[in-house]
Design goal:
Helices cover 44% and strands 15% of the residues. With 323 residues, the protein is an alpha/beta fold.
Protein backbone atom coordinates (compact mmCIF):
# COMPACT_ATOMS: atom_id res chain seq x y z
CA UNK A 1 0.00 0.00 0.00
CA UNK A 2 1.31 3.44 -0.99
CA UNK A 3 0.64 6.64 0.92
CA UNK A 4 -2.17 8.74 -0.55
CA UNK A 5 -1.96 12.52 -1.13
CA UNK A 6 -4.53 13.02 1.66
CA UNK A 7 -2.42 11.03 4.11
CA UNK A 8 0.65 13.03 3.08
CA UNK A 9 -1.20 16.27 3.85
CA UNK A 10 -2.24 14.94 7.28
CA UNK A 11 1.33 13.80 7.99
CA UNK A 12 2.81 17.15 6.95
CA UNK A 13 0.37 19.10 9.12
CA UNK A 14 1.24 17.16 12.29
CA UNK A 15 4.97 17.18 11.48
CA UNK A 16 5.04 20.97 11.08
CA UNK A 17 3.05 21.43 14.31
CA UNK A 18 5.58 19.27 16.16
CA UNK A 19 8.48 21.29 14.74
CA UNK A 20 6.81 24.61 15.62
CA UNK A 21 6.18 23.35 19.15
CA UNK A 22 9.83 22.49 19.82
CA UNK A 23 10.90 25.71 18.09
CA UNK A 24 9.52 27.54 21.14
CA UNK A 25 12.35 25.99 23.15
CA UNK A 26 15.15 25.61 20.61
CA UNK A 27 14.93 29.03 18.99
CA UNK A 28 16.19 29.54 15.45
CA UNK A 29 17.08 25.89 14.86
CA UNK A 30 14.20 24.75 12.66
CA UNK A 31 16.38 22.61 10.39
CA UNK A 32 17.87 20.68 13.33
CA UNK A 33 14.40 20.16 14.81
CA UNK A 34 13.16 18.82 11.48
CA UNK A 35 16.09 16.42 11.40
CA UNK A 36 15.25 15.28 14.93
CA UNK A 37 11.63 14.47 14.11
CA UNK A 38 12.67 12.93 10.79
CA UNK A 39 14.92 10.56 12.73
CA UNK A 40 12.17 9.80 15.26
CA UNK A 41 9.59 9.05 12.56
CA UNK A 42 12.11 6.93 10.67
CA UNK A 43 12.66 4.74 13.76
CA UNK A 44 16.23 5.98 14.06
CA UNK A 45 18.62 7.69 16.45
CA UNK A 46 20.44 11.02 16.40
CA UNK A 47 24.05 11.88 17.23
CA UNK A 48 24.77 15.50 18.17
CA UNK A 49 28.38 16.61 18.13
CA UNK A 50 28.17 19.96 19.83
CA UNK A 51 29.50 22.29 22.48
CA UNK A 52 28.12 22.42 26.04
CA UNK A 53 25.19 24.74 26.64
CA UNK A 54 23.63 24.66 23.17
CA UNK A 55 20.29 23.24 24.31
CA UNK A 56 20.70 19.51 23.74
CA UNK A 57 18.84 18.48 26.90
CA UNK A 58 16.06 20.99 26.29
CA UNK A 59 15.76 19.68 22.73
CA UNK A 60 15.29 16.07 23.88
CA UNK A 61 12.85 17.04 26.62
CA UNK A 62 10.75 19.22 24.30
CA UNK A 63 10.55 16.44 21.71
CA UNK A 64 9.31 14.00 24.35
CA UNK A 65 6.76 16.49 25.67
CA UNK A 66 5.49 17.16 22.13
CA UNK A 67 4.63 13.48 21.61
CA UNK A 68 3.27 13.01 25.16
CA UNK A 69 6.14 10.64 25.89
CA UNK A 70 8.74 10.07 28.56
CA UNK A 71 12.33 11.29 28.50
CA UNK A 72 15.45 10.44 30.45
CA UNK A 73 19.02 11.69 30.58
CA UNK A 74 22.06 9.50 31.09
CA UNK A 75 25.30 11.28 31.93
CA UNK A 76 28.05 9.07 30.52
CA UNK A 77 31.17 8.89 32.71
CA UNK A 78 34.22 6.58 32.77
CA UNK A 79 32.81 4.62 35.73
CA UNK A 80 29.35 4.09 34.21
CA UNK A 81 28.44 0.40 33.92
CA UNK A 82 26.17 -1.29 31.34
CA UNK A 83 23.66 -2.14 34.07
CA UNK A 84 23.38 1.55 34.93
CA UNK A 85 21.85 2.00 31.48
CA UNK A 86 19.85 -1.14 30.82
CA UNK A 87 18.79 -2.01 34.36
CA UNK A 88 19.56 -4.97 36.64
CA UNK A 89 17.90 -8.01 38.15
CA UNK A 90 17.72 -7.88 41.95
CA UNK A 91 16.81 -10.83 44.15
CA UNK A 92 13.54 -10.38 46.04
CA UNK A 93 13.70 -12.38 49.25
CA UNK A 94 9.97 -12.12 49.84
CA UNK A 95 9.06 -13.60 46.47
CA UNK A 96 12.17 -15.79 46.32
CA UNK A 97 12.84 -14.66 42.75
CA UNK A 98 14.81 -12.12 40.75
CA UNK A 99 12.99 -8.93 39.77
CA UNK A 100 14.06 -6.74 36.86
CA UNK A 101 14.54 -3.08 37.68
CA UNK A 102 14.57 -1.12 34.39
CA UNK A 103 17.26 1.47 33.79
CA UNK A 104 16.94 4.95 32.24
CA UNK A 105 17.03 3.49 28.72
CA UNK A 106 13.33 2.69 29.18
CA UNK A 107 11.93 5.99 27.91
CA UNK A 108 10.61 7.30 24.61
CA UNK A 109 13.39 9.88 24.17
CA UNK A 110 16.73 9.07 25.82
CA UNK A 111 19.50 11.68 25.97
CA UNK A 112 22.90 9.94 26.18
CA UNK A 113 25.02 12.91 27.22
CA UNK A 114 28.74 12.82 26.32
CA UNK A 115 28.48 9.23 25.17
CA UNK A 116 32.18 9.07 24.29
CA UNK A 117 33.20 9.51 27.94
CA UNK A 118 32.09 5.98 28.86
CA UNK A 119 34.16 2.87 28.21
CA UNK A 120 33.58 0.85 25.02
CA UNK A 121 31.97 -1.89 27.13
CA UNK A 122 29.36 0.54 28.41
CA UNK A 123 28.87 2.11 24.98
CA UNK A 124 28.16 -1.35 23.58
CA UNK A 125 25.21 -1.70 25.98
CA UNK A 126 23.35 0.61 23.62
CA UNK A 127 23.95 -1.46 20.48
CA UNK A 128 21.20 -4.03 21.04
CA UNK A 129 18.55 -1.60 22.22
CA UNK A 130 19.25 0.90 19.42
CA UNK A 131 18.98 -1.78 16.75
CA UNK A 132 16.20 -4.00 18.13
CA UNK A 133 14.37 -1.80 20.68
CA UNK A 134 14.74 -4.28 23.49
CA UNK A 135 17.17 -5.07 26.30
CA UNK A 136 18.32 -8.57 27.24
CA UNK A 137 19.21 -9.06 30.92
CA UNK A 138 19.94 -12.52 32.33
CA UNK A 139 18.61 -14.09 29.15
CA UNK A 140 15.25 -12.31 29.34
CA UNK A 141 14.24 -9.78 26.69
CA UNK A 142 12.56 -6.54 27.80
CA UNK A 143 11.07 -4.26 25.09
CA UNK A 144 11.58 -0.53 25.61
CA UNK A 145 8.31 0.41 23.92
CA UNK A 146 7.55 2.74 21.05
CA UNK A 147 8.36 5.33 19.97
CA UNK A 148 11.97 4.98 21.04
CA UNK A 149 14.87 7.25 20.16
CA UNK A 150 18.38 7.85 21.49
CA UNK A 151 19.83 11.34 21.16
CA UNK A 152 23.53 11.00 21.95
CA UNK A 153 25.95 13.89 22.32
CA UNK A 154 29.70 14.29 22.24
CA UNK A 155 31.94 17.30 22.73
CA UNK A 156 34.09 18.00 19.63
CA UNK A 157 36.63 20.05 21.58
CA UNK A 158 37.43 18.15 24.78
CA UNK A 159 39.00 14.78 23.87
CA UNK A 160 40.91 14.01 27.09
CA UNK A 161 39.48 10.97 28.87
CA UNK A 162 37.17 10.03 26.02
CA UNK A 163 36.76 6.89 23.92
CA UNK A 164 36.16 7.34 20.23
CA UNK A 165 32.95 5.72 19.06
CA UNK A 166 33.75 2.67 16.90
CA UNK A 167 32.51 2.65 13.31
CA UNK A 168 30.02 -0.14 14.09
CA UNK A 169 28.31 2.05 16.68
CA UNK A 170 28.42 5.21 14.56
CA UNK A 171 26.66 3.21 11.86
CA UNK A 172 23.76 2.61 14.28
CA UNK A 173 22.98 6.33 14.36
CA UNK A 174 20.59 7.29 11.61
CA UNK A 175 21.92 10.86 11.49
CA UNK A 176 24.62 13.08 12.88
CA UNK A 177 24.31 16.84 13.13
CA UNK A 178 24.97 19.76 15.48
CA UNK A 179 22.75 22.42 17.01
CA UNK A 180 25.33 25.19 17.08
CA UNK A 181 25.02 28.61 18.68
CA UNK A 182 21.87 30.67 18.06
CA UNK A 183 21.92 33.74 15.83
CA UNK A 184 21.69 37.28 17.21
CA UNK A 185 17.89 37.64 17.20
CA UNK A 186 17.41 34.19 18.77
CA UNK A 187 19.98 34.99 21.45
CA UNK A 188 18.09 38.19 22.34
CA UNK A 189 14.85 36.22 22.66
CA UNK A 190 16.59 33.65 24.87
CA UNK A 191 17.93 36.41 27.13
CA UNK A 192 14.45 37.91 27.45
CA UNK A 193 13.36 34.65 29.07
CA UNK A 194 16.41 34.39 31.34
CA UNK A 195 14.18 34.33 34.43
CA UNK A 196 12.87 30.88 33.54
CA UNK A 197 15.13 27.89 34.07
CA UNK A 198 15.47 25.47 31.18
CA UNK A 199 13.95 22.51 33.05
CA UNK A 200 10.91 24.63 33.97
CA UNK A 201 10.00 25.21 30.32
CA UNK A 202 7.16 22.89 29.31
CA UNK A 203 5.65 22.67 25.84
CA UNK A 204 2.16 21.24 25.33
CA UNK A 205 1.73 17.80 23.75
CA UNK A 206 0.74 17.86 20.09
CA UNK A 207 0.05 14.16 19.55
CA UNK A 208 0.15 10.95 21.56
CA UNK A 209 2.88 8.35 21.31
CA UNK A 210 0.45 6.07 19.46
CA UNK A 211 0.04 8.66 16.70
CA UNK A 212 3.83 8.86 16.34
CA UNK A 213 3.97 5.10 15.86
CA UNK A 214 1.20 5.38 13.25
CA UNK A 215 3.08 8.16 11.44
CA UNK A 216 6.28 6.12 11.40
CA UNK A 217 4.43 3.19 9.86
CA UNK A 218 2.78 5.50 7.32
CA UNK A 219 6.13 7.05 6.32
CA UNK A 220 7.33 3.62 5.18
CA UNK A 221 4.60 3.58 2.50
CA UNK A 222 5.88 6.67 0.67
CA UNK A 223 6.55 5.86 -2.98
CA UNK A 224 10.19 5.64 -4.08
CA UNK A 225 10.75 5.66 -7.82
CA UNK A 226 13.37 3.22 -9.19
CA UNK A 227 15.34 6.22 -10.46
CA UNK A 228 15.61 7.48 -6.87
CA UNK A 229 16.97 4.13 -5.72
CA UNK A 230 19.48 4.29 -8.56
CA UNK A 231 20.45 7.83 -7.48
CA UNK A 232 20.99 6.71 -3.87
CA UNK A 233 23.03 3.72 -5.05
CA UNK A 234 25.30 5.98 -7.13
CA UNK A 235 25.83 8.29 -4.16
CA UNK A 236 26.78 5.32 -1.97
CA UNK A 237 29.18 4.07 -4.63
CA UNK A 238 30.69 7.56 -4.75
CA UNK A 239 31.55 7.34 -1.03
CA UNK A 240 33.37 4.06 -1.65
CA UNK A 241 35.38 5.21 -4.66
CA UNK A 242 36.42 8.65 -3.37
CA UNK A 243 40.21 8.76 -3.13
CA UNK A 244 40.16 10.38 0.35
CA UNK A 245 37.89 7.71 1.84
CA UNK A 246 39.26 4.52 3.41
CA UNK A 247 35.82 3.08 4.23
CA UNK A 248 32.64 4.21 2.47
CA UNK A 249 28.99 4.08 3.48
CA UNK A 250 27.49 0.69 4.29
CA UNK A 251 24.28 -0.86 3.00
CA UNK A 252 22.73 0.21 6.31
CA UNK A 253 23.62 3.77 5.35
CA UNK A 254 21.92 3.40 1.96
CA UNK A 255 18.77 2.05 3.61
CA UNK A 256 18.88 4.88 6.15
CA UNK A 257 19.03 7.47 3.37
CA UNK A 258 15.97 6.02 1.65
CA UNK A 259 14.04 5.69 4.93
CA UNK A 260 14.69 9.28 5.96
CA UNK A 261 13.95 10.57 2.45
CA UNK A 262 10.54 8.91 2.68
CA UNK A 263 9.84 10.65 5.98
CA UNK A 264 11.05 14.03 4.71
CA UNK A 265 8.86 13.68 1.62
CA UNK A 266 5.80 13.01 3.78
CA UNK A 267 6.77 15.92 6.06
CA UNK A 268 6.75 18.11 2.93
CA UNK A 269 3.23 16.96 2.03
CA UNK A 270 4.26 14.57 -0.74
CA UNK A 271 3.50 10.86 -1.11
CA UNK A 272 6.61 10.32 -3.22
CA UNK A 273 10.34 11.02 -2.86
CA UNK A 274 12.15 13.54 -5.06
CA UNK A 275 15.94 13.98 -5.53
CA UNK A 276 15.94 17.08 -3.31
CA UNK A 277 14.87 14.91 -0.35
CA UNK A 278 17.93 12.75 -0.88
CA UNK A 279 20.21 15.77 -1.32
CA UNK A 280 18.97 17.40 1.88
CA UNK A 281 19.68 14.30 3.95
CA UNK A 282 22.80 12.83 2.32
CA UNK A 283 25.26 14.73 4.53
CA UNK A 284 23.61 14.18 7.96
CA UNK A 285 22.84 10.53 7.13
CA UNK A 286 26.08 9.45 5.45
CA UNK A 287 28.98 11.73 6.49
CA UNK A 288 29.54 10.17 9.92
CA UNK A 289 29.72 6.70 8.36
CA UNK A 290 32.80 7.55 6.29
CA UNK A 291 36.31 6.73 7.46
CA UNK A 292 38.72 9.29 6.02
CA UNK A 293 42.25 8.40 4.95
CA UNK A 294 44.73 9.62 7.58
CA UNK A 295 46.69 11.74 5.13
CA UNK A 296 43.54 13.39 3.77
CA UNK A 297 42.31 14.02 7.31
CA UNK A 298 45.63 15.66 8.14
CA UNK A 299 45.16 17.93 5.10
CA UNK A 300 41.83 19.11 6.53
CA UNK A 301 39.48 17.03 4.40
CA UNK A 302 36.20 16.40 6.25
CA UNK A 303 33.40 13.90 5.63
CA UNK A 304 31.01 16.80 5.02
CA UNK A 305 33.20 18.27 2.28
CA UNK A 306 33.49 14.85 0.66
CA UNK A 307 29.71 14.42 0.68
CA UNK A 308 29.26 17.87 -0.87
CA UNK A 309 31.66 16.94 -3.67
CA UNK A 310 29.94 13.60 -4.27
CA UNK A 311 26.55 15.30 -4.58
CA UNK A 312 28.02 17.70 -7.15
CA UNK A 313 29.54 14.86 -9.16
CA UNK A 314 26.46 12.61 -8.99
CA UNK A 315 23.72 13.88 -11.31
CA UNK A 316 20.16 13.39 -10.02
CA UNK A 317 17.51 11.69 -12.17
CA UNK A 318 15.82 14.09 -14.57
CA UNK A 319 12.46 12.35 -14.61
CA UNK A 320 10.46 9.81 -12.65
CA UNK A 321 7.90 7.20 -13.41
CA UNK A 322 4.23 7.90 -12.84
CA UNK A 323 3.00 7.21 -9.31
Amino acid sequence: MTMTPEQATWFSDIFNRLVANVDQVLLGKTFVIRLGFTALLSDGHLLLEDYPGTGKTSFARAMAQSVAGTSSRIQFTPDLLPGDITGVSIYNQGGAEFEFHPGPIFANIVLADEINRASPKTQSALLEVMEEAHVTVDGVSHPVGAPFMVIATQNPIEQAGTYRLPEAQLDRFLMKTSIGYPDHSSTVRILEGAGVKAHETIVPPIVTADVVVEMAQLARTVHVDPTINDYVSRIIEGTRTATEVRLGASVRGALALVRTAKTLAAASGRHYVIPDDVKALAEPVLAHRLVIDAEAEFDGVSPSSIMSQILIETPPPSERQAV
